[in-house]
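Q: Could you fold this chain for me?
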Amino acid sequence: MTTTATPSEKTGAHTSEAADAITGARERIDSLDDRIIGLIQERMAVSAVIQEARITSGGRRVNLARELEVLGHYRDALGKPGTGLAMTLLELCRGRV
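A: Sure. Below is the predicted structure, expressed as C-alpha cells.
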C-alpha cells in the first residue's frame, strides 16, 4: 500500500501556510535551476567557439590569464565559494573542441 506524503511532510513545514510558501519557492528554484543550466550550456558553446578560433590560429586551447580573470570575477561577486563555482564552470567549458 502506497501512501502519499502531505505537503507538510514533503517540505518539513509545521503549518500549511509554510508548506505552501516552501512549495512555491521550490518551484521558483527549479525554474531558476533550469535557466542556469541553459546559460551554462550556452557558455559551453561560446567557449567552444573561442577555443576553436584560438587553436585554429595556432594558439593554446586554454588561456590561463583569462581563466584567472574569470576566477577573480566570481570570487569578487560571490566570495570564496564563487571560486569553486568558477572552477567548475571552467572545467565544463574546457576541451570540448
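A (continued): The helical segments are 7-11, 16-56, 64-78, 80-93.
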